[in-house]
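Hi everyone, sorry if this is the wrong subforum. Our group has a chain we'd like a structural model of before ordering constructs, and none of us has done structure prediction before. Sequence below.
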Amino acid sequence: MDLEQPWCTPGLRAYQAMLEKDRSARLANQQRLRELRAAHASEVDVFSGHDTVEFERLSGRSPRLPAEAFARAG
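Answer:
Right subforum, don't worry. Here is the predicted structure as tokens:
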């Protein structure tokens, strides 16, 4: 989500291309997320829902803990 020089690894780029259903929609969505981040960086965290490291950092819990257990815990 680099605002000045968007970039991803070649492997991720190939993976995105293989799985995309609508390239223009995917690219437009990425642009919307960059705009959201630029306009509201102090209010929102834009992150990948597929990244367990970011999930742990933002949620404060392990992705291995079932959501139901977390709800009961607090």
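For your construct planning: The radius of gyration is 15 Å. The mean pLDDT is 84.
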